[in-house]
């Protein structure tokens, strides 16, 4: 039998709070998705003004980061024609997302969930996702 | 041009709060989804212990209730063999959900969004969805 | 509560009229899709001779332009291997379309819908989409 | 943070062994799927002669039983026209399976995974699924 540690609802709220604060700071309303370590949705928030397409993309970024235990921008880097990773962006009906903005959430070296941001540029999405993790790690201690 | 009124993030939080309180009261951890009047997700919460299958079902109930402006249990009632409504439960790839637990959210006689609950029995899901609406209507006034 | 402005059926007819006139002028029968600001279809016309594949592609272009508030050719420009946006073209099961020919429709600086054209070259599709918007903005005033 | 217990690969082999022995005993080659408590596949075996359609159905039965924490035949019982549960069989694109043959696997009162059998009659599928659980619970002690 395996014993797994995963985000609970309270953890998810901290992640969302940190990401939202950064999104407000840079003035970009975001879609924010938090999933557990298996990629199942725990919490979601579309800030007023977040894009409709981002409802799904934020969830897919979080899913990919948690379930593959890899940041989506790391997949992006290798997902170039000629690389053997190329094509992974169409896997799972396109649900495996290689656009920057999805980060695994780790505690004590173990992936316990994922966070996905969408509505800004990939750089903005990544910065807000990281802000969510920073806030979570700082506050839960 | 049409002018539309729809739930914002603050409204969504009130709806979730009311539904969660009822879910805690009856001791059934739920998945709670709030969508706008077009059926796009605004907020989602999986209470600790909510079912994985309910992540999607709660969203589909909310989507159906808002986008069709009809409670899912009202579709259910008519979705019986021999009725001309029968078969609607397979529409949109099964996303149109006729299981009880999805309610449209109306303000001033206009549908402004939807709420979907899943993880309990349909009766429990419906009671929590209604509790969300009651709390929202009472608190926003 | 949010207040949203979106295209109505009359607006949609103007958009289609402008796009059709341009399509007839260049001699390319087109599929023309108009969606509201949430990406839901408001009107669609397949001119006699329009391509069958374009029935879906025109809708996806209009959906993408409205729901992401960005022209599909702008996504196309950034969706190149090595860019952090790469991979967005497979999002939403491929429904997020980065082929040129989808434009958001804005009034008073706000996106109120989208128009998507398909059956010609991307340049032809874009020109007809723009013609639809020009006709709409000029006529409604 | 939540702590979760789930089936590991060794547990999955025990479940499959018990199910296969019963399938051989009754002379029906089966598809056997084992998933963890989130519904993700851990192990799968198509006995020589197992049906091709059952490759997916066995997985969907196991997924449903684990992720909804309910035997598929229990859903079946309530999924009748006129019941508020009716329509659940088309949820998740039909992946939520209400055909008999999927059972949750519980240890110490907690669902740790699911087993799904397909290729025989529902009664045969259910008997083999139960045989898998019996063997697992007896052997792991």
UniProtKB/TrEMBL annotation, chains A, B, C, D:
Entry protein name: Heme-binding protein
InterPro entries recorded: GlcG_carb_metab_protein, PduO/GlcC-like, PduO/GlcC-like_sf
PANTHER family hit by this protein: PROTEIN GLCG, SLR1406 PROTEIN
């Amino acid at each position: 039998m395996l014993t797994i540690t995963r985000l609970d609802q309270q953890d998810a709220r901290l992640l969302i709070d940190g990401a939202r604060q950064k999104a407000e700071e840079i003035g970009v309303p975001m879609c924010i998705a938090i999933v557990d370590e298996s990629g199942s949705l725990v919490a979601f928030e579309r800030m007023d003004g977040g894009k409709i397409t981002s409802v799904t993309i934020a969830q897919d970024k979080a899913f990919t980061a948690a379930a593959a235990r890899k940041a989506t921008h790391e997949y992006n880097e290798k997902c170039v024609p000629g690389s053997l990773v190329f094509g992974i962006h169409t896997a799972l009906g396109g649900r495996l997302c290689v656009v920057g903005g999805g980060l695994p959430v780790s505690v004590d070296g173990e992936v316990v969930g994922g966070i996905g941001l969408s509505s800004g540029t990939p750089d903005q999405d990544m910065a807000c996702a990281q802000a969510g993790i920073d806030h979570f790690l700082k506050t839960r201690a």
